[in-house]
Amino acid sequence: MDGPVEILLTALAMAVAIEGIVYALFPEAMKRMMAKVMVQPAGSIRGAGIGAAVAGVFILWLVRG
């Protein structure tokens, strides 16, 4: 069974790979999205980040049990 460090590194590697694929396939859409993010208040971005982190941990919990 994988230990917690291996699970964390696997999840991190998958996230980086998926993000890289999105940037490679849709560079113009990513540029537009980043421009929209730049004008958002920091609190909104922080809230979205916390929400994404919680969702990711929940999904890992469901999958890895």
Short description:
The chain has one domain (4-64). The chain is built from 3 helices and no strands.
Helix-strand makeup class = mainly alpha
SSE topology string: HHH
Please state the average pLDDT score: 91
Report helical residue fraction. over 70%
Rg: 15 Å
CA(first)-CA(last) distance:
12 Å
- Number of β-strand runs: 0
Q: Helix count?
A: 3
Can you walk me through this structure?
By secondary structure, this protein is mainly alpha-helical. The protein has one domain (4-64). The protein has three helices and no strands. It has helices at 4-25, 27-38, 42-64. The longest helix has 23 residues, at 42-64. It is flat. The two termini are 12 Å apart.
Layout of SSEs?
Layout: H1 4-25, H2 27-38, H3 42-64
What are its keywords?
3 helices, 65 residues, 88% helix, flat, mainly alpha, single chain
